[in-house]
C-alpha cells in the first residue's frame, strides 16, 4: 500500500476538520484525545503560491522543527542525501506555506504514518504552480525499508513530489518510491500517542464517524509553525 495523495474535495476536508467538536466516534472504545494537545485554530485553505527553487540551495539547513498543537517534532535533515528535496521544502518553510495547516492522514495497520503538508487538508493539495519534482535517496526494496523515525515525501508516482510528506512512527515496508529526507529526533513518542488514539472516516450512508485504519487522525494535529536552521 502506497503513500499516494488521497483525492477528497476541499469542501469535504473543511467540513470534516471543522466538525471536530464531535464528542464520540461510533462505538468509541479508546480515548479521543492525546493529553496536552490544544484545540486547533487553523482552517483548511488553498495552497499558497511560492517561487519554486530549481537548483540546490547553498547552505542547506540541518534541522527542521515542527510546532504542533500537541507538541514539538524535530527532524534531522539529510542534506547530503536529499539536497534537492530539502531545497524545495526549505523554500516552502521560509514562505510559511505549512503554517496553520493540518496533518490530514493517519494509518495504523501495516502502514504506520502520519501524513502532513497539504494546506487543503484533502490529500490532493500542493504548491500552486509547481509541476512536481524528482525523487532522490530512495531505499532498497527490502522489508522495513522505511524504519521508525523516517521522514519521506508522499507522491502520486515518479517525479510528482510537492509539499506532502509523511512521518513513520513504526517500522514500515513500502515500495521504494518515496524520497527519504529526514529522521525524527524528537517527538516520536508524540506520534505514537496520536496513533494510539487512531483514525476515522465518515460513513456516507449515515454521516457518522467510524474508526478506520486509514483516515483522518481522531486527535486533530495542527501544524502551528515550521522552521529550519
UniProtKB/TrEMBL annotation:
<feature type="domain" description="PPIase cyclophilin-type">
    <location>
        <begin position="71"/>
        <end position="228"/>
    </location>
</feature>
<dbReference type="InterPro" id="IPR029000">
    <property type="entry name" value="Cyclophilin-like_dom_sf"/>
</dbReference>
<dbReference type="InterPro" id="IPR044666">
    <property type="entry name" value="Cyclophilin_A-like"/>
</dbReference>
<protein>
    <submittedName>
        <fullName>Unannotated protein</fullName>
    </submittedName>
</protein>
<dbReference type="InterPro" id="IPR002130">
    <property type="entry name" value="Cyclophilin-type_PPIase_dom"/>
</dbReference>
<dbReference type="GO" id="GO:0003755">
    <property type="term" value="F:peptidyl-prolyl cis-trans isomerase activity"/>
</dbReference>
<dbReference type="Pfam" id="PF00160">
    <property type="entry name" value="Pro_isomerase"/>
</dbReference>
Amino acid at each position: 500500500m502506497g503513500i499516494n495523495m488521497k483525492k477528497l474535495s476541499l469542501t469535504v476536508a473543511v467540513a470534516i476538520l471543522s466538525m471536530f467538536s464531535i464528542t464520540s466516534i461510533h462505538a468509541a472504545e479508546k480515548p479521543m484525545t492525546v493529553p496536552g494537545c490544544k484545540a486547533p485554530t487553523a482552517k483548511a485553505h488553498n495552497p499558497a503560491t511560492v517561487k519554486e527553487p530549481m537548483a540546490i540551495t547553498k547552505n542547506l539547513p540541518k534541522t527542521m522543527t515542527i510546532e504542533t498543537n500537541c507538541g514539538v517534532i524535530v527532524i534531522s535533515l539529510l542534506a547530503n542525501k536529499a539536497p534537492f528535496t530539502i531545497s524545495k521544502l526549505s523554500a516552502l518553510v521560509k514562505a510559511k506555506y505549512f503554517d496553520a495547516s493540518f496533518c490530514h492522514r493517519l494509518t495504523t495497520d501495516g502502514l504506520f504514518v502520519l501524513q502532513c503538508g497539504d494546506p487543503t487538508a484533502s490529500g490532493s493539495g500542493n504548491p500552486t504552480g509547481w509541476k512536481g519534482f524528482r525523487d532522490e535517496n530512495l531505499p532498497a526494496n527490502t522489508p522495513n525499508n522505511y524504519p521508525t523515525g523516517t521522514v519521506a515525501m508522499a507522491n502520486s508516482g515518479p517525479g510528482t513530489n510537492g509539499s506532502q510528506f509523511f512521518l513513520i512512527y513504526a517500522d514500515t515496508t513500502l515500495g521504494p518510491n518515496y524520497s527519504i529526507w529526514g529522521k525524527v529526533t524528537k517527538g516520536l513518542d508524540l506520534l505514537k500517542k496520536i496513533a494510539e488514539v487512531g483514525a476515522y472516516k465518515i460513513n456516507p450512508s449515515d454521516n457518522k464517524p467510524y474508526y478506520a485504519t486509514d483516515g483522518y487522525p481522531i486527535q486533530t494535529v495542527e501544524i502551528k509553525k515550521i522552521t529550519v536552521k
